[in-house]
Design goal:
By secondary structure, the protein is mainly beta. It is built from no helices and eight strands. Strands 3, 4, 6, 7 and 8 form a five-stranded antiparallel sheet that branches. Strand 1 and strand 2 form a beta hairpin.
């Protein structure tokens, strides 16, 4: 399955050599694939779709405590047009990634 889109990844933890965190930019439905690539193990992670705001970012979609290499996060467009991004964070360790901002929900 192809995981296209803009990817911005942070370095993985030393314990997960060969792994790369990724967060694809949300697609036209405001959904995104997030997780880790190139891994032989899985760790628990949380995925989010957020609207980039001047104040605290607004979570418009989340998938929590998933123990998979990669997974989908489904966002909504309840806030209307704006700059949205995907983010993934490890639950019990450091690591994660954030996508680029994209304008969605036109």
């Amino acid at each position: 399955m192809a995981l296209g889109g803009t990817t911005a990844a942070l370095a993985s933890t030393p314990a997960a050599k060969g792994c790369t965190w990724f967060a694809d930019a949300p697609n036209s439905n405001n959904d995104a694939a997030v997780g880790r690539k190139g891994c032989t193990n899985t760790i628990k992670a949380n995925g989010y779709i957020k609207e980039n705001r001047v104040g605290p970012d607004d979570i418009v979609g989340e998938t929590l405590n998933v123990g998979a290499g990669w997974f989908m996060v489904y966002g909504t467009c309840g806030n209307g047009q704006g700059k949205y991004f995907a983010q993934v964070t490890a639950v019990n360790s450091s690591g994660g990634a954030r996508s680029d901002d994209v304008v969605r929900c036109n």
